[in-house]
Write a structure and sequence with these properties.
The complex is a heterodimer.
Chain A (H helix, E strand, L loop, with lengths): L12 E2 L3 E5 L3 E7 L3 E11 L2 E8 L8 E5 L5 E7 L10 E5 L2 E7 L15
Parallel strand pairs in A: 1-7
Antiparallel strand pairs in A: 2-3, 3-9, 4-5, 5-7, 8-9
Chain B lengths: L10 H9 L3 H14 L6 E6 L2 E7 L9 E5 L2 E8 L7 E8 L10 E5 L2 E7 L15
Antiparallel strand pairs in B: 1-2, 2-7, 3-4, 4-5, 6-7
The chains are: A mainly beta, B alpha+beta.
């Protein structure tokens, strides 16, 4: 699929640290993906399922030897059911500083709305 | 798992519901992630004749809030761990290095949520020859 996503089979599958919060407009899902480059993230929507797959880059600098490894090459993987009230077509995501933010907008009809009261 | 039709406002209920899709796999994965959170930040360390490079996983962190210091042969990384909510947790980790560091040459850069700290080795005291005089 791309240059930064390879030897998938050898990498252990790990769930990223995830937080989800809700506001009036929708849900904001954050997944920690340290060391993951933008072209190594794949986000797929299939029916009402959101699938996240990402691979980090671990490279030994030239001329150096690795003496301690706490961050192995990983395949981050998570599967979410998209709530009915989310407009699946409007899902967007950004990757910044190793954090993937996915915004899942609510469908207009489920958003809270103010009803103006007119004088009778 | 308990199923409900009305949508619950709690983000944790939402997360649970979302996670339920592939729950057995996700449970195993979640456990892995939790076991791994004991030490923060997690690091990879590389060494060469010229020095060491420490790469620390600090996703979503403002690098200006991270304190990196070297004293004697000990590297210290301090800061606050963002958790996406308001309750950032302080963290602190120390690493003993196998050699003295040229402190003025230490630099760090942050990209893709990884802090890479370059620690050049201090110039070694040169062994000096002692002339042996004839007796």
């Amino acid at each position: 699929m791309n240059k930064n996503k390879q030897n998938n089979a050898n990498r252990p599958l790990v769930a990223p640290v995830i937080s989800v919060r809700e506001d009036a407009d929708g849900y904001i899902l954050r997944a920690d993906l340290p060391g993951v480059m933008q072209d190594a993230v794949e986000l797929t929507v299939e029916d009402r399922t959101l699938i996240l797959e990402a691979e980090n880059t671990v490279a030994t600098p030239e001329g150096y030897t690795m003496v301690r490894q706490e961050i192995p090459p990983l395949c981050y993987h998570a599967v979410f059911e998209i709530p009915e009230r989310v407009e699946a077509g409007g899902i967007q995501s950004t990757l910044e500083n190793g954090v993937l933010t996915v915004t899942l907008p609510k469908r207009e009809e489920v958003k809270p709305r103010r009803i103006s009261v007119t004088a009778g | 798992m308990f199923r409900y039709t009305a949508f619950d406002a709690s983000p944790w209920r939402l997360l649970d519901e979302m996670m339920d899709v592939d729950s057995r796999l996700n449970r195993a994965l979640k456990a892995t992630a939790e076991r791994a959170t004991g030490r923060y930040p997690r690091v990879n360390i590389f060494t060469s004749d010229n020095g060491a490079i420490v790469e620390a996983a600090l996703p979503g962190t403002d690098p200006s809030t991270v304190e990196v210091s070297v004293e004697d042969q000990v590297l210290e990384i301090k800061g606050r761990r963002p958790d996406g909510k308001d309750s950032d947790q302080p963290f602190e980790r120390r690493f003993e290095l196998p050699f003295a560091v040229a402190e003025e040459g230490v630099n760090a850069k942050y990209s893709n949520g990884m802090l890479s700290i370059n620690l050049p080795r201090a110039p070694q005291r040169k062994p000096h020859k002692i002339a042996v005089a004839k007796g």
